[in-house]
Design brief:
Largest sheet: 2 strands, parallel
Radius of gyration: 18 Å
Helix content: 40-55%
Distance between the termini: 38 Å
Strand order of the largest sheet: 1-2
């Protein structure tokens, strides 16, 4: 969010954020619990983000077919977890996610 806001040609007056944990942003922040259900602009941003993520995951699935990104959109399905334990994480896996971290630690120990 911070990178996106910093890339704007002008600083917004306020950032509306879905949830209750205000991120550190270069402008004032208003958090709104269940904002995607109450604020049309948050709902629209959520839809755009999911469409973009799904497209990215399909492309990653072509490059890294073992993980099933095109089918699981990065969620930890059984097949995805199995691929992690067999192949370890790729450069696009979030190391902060415990199963990814564990798979990487396991392979480093070999």
């Amino acid at each position: 969010m911070c990178r996106a806001l910093e890339a704007l040609p002008c600083r917004p007056d306020i950032a509306l954020v879905d949830g209750n944990d205000p991120p550190k942003l270069p402008c004032p922040v208003e958090t709104i619990v269940k904002g995607d259900a109450h604020v049309p602009s948050i709902a629209a941003a959520s839809i755009v983000a999911k469409v973009v993520r799904d497209r990215m995951m399909r492309r990653l699935g072509e490059t890294y077919p073992a993980y099933g990104f095109g089918q699981n959109a990065g969620y930890s399905t059984g097949a995805h977890l199995s691929a992690l334990s067999e192949s370890g994480p790729c450069g696009f896996h979030r190391r902060s996610f415990a199963p990814v971290r564990a798979a990487g630690d396991l392979l480093q120990g070999l």
